[in-house]
Amino acid sequence: MEKIEDPFFEAKEQITFQFSEARYLYDLYVKTAREGNIGTSSTLLDISNELWKIINEIDDCLIDLEEVVFAVERQPEKYKISDEEASERRLFVNRARNDLEQMQKDMSEPVEDVCCRREEKLLKQTVHDEESLDNSLAMSPKLALKYQKLLEDEQDTQLDYVFGTVQNLREQASIMGRELEEQFELIEEVDTRIERTGEKLKRGFRNMKWVIKKNEGKFLSKVLENNLSKTKYLPIL
């Protein structure tokens, strides 16, 4: 009978590596939340999104691996493995599933609760456990640089945002200054026009009074002349 290639070990290696990434991100998530520096909120969101992405990938891999383990348990003769090996594989899958569900539960809770529970857990650990934890967080230089770059990029983004805000405020202040200056010039121009119009009105009134007075004199003279001419022809009683 032809021996069928066993995909378990490749899937196991992939899941183990993904868990290593997830644990690193999880501790980075807790550490960032505990420090609470400028830009923490957006940094936490980036880390959380990346962590959930890996969690979902682990979940998909585990589903496939569980199917493989189940298939091997049904027909172990095809894969040439013992019952003990099959039990170890089932144990690995169950532990991975439990760890994944716990991580999903932790990430679904408020970050404050996660930090408190994490601190309590660290306080209860022995020196050996702490060393094991440090070892579990030992990542490849490439991955460590990747997330260090993520933090640096986030800080650069925050600085760019602050700088951009300052620049916008300066531009707005400059625009407001120019608008105020233009309004002041417009007001001065209106005042000048009003003043000129007032002067023209005054001159107009003066001319009008002069014309009226002049015409009044002519009118009175004419009236007197008419009256005198009429008296010449009146009969003497």
UniProtKB/TrEMBL annotation:
**Keywords on this record?**
Coiled coil, Golgi apparatus, Membrane, Protein transport, Transmembrane, Transmembrane helix, Transport
Alphabetical list of Pfam families matching this protein = STX6_10_61_N (PF09177)
The record's CDD domains line, in alphabetical order, gives: SNARE_NTD_STX6-like, SNARE_Syntaxin6
Q: How does it sit in the membrane?
A: Single-pass type IV membrane protein
Localisation per UniProt entry: Golgi apparatus, trans-Golgi network membrane
Q: Name one GO biological process term.
A: protein transport
Family membership, please give it. Belongs to the syntaxin family.
Q: What is this protein called?
A: t-SNARE affecting a late Golgi compartment protein 1
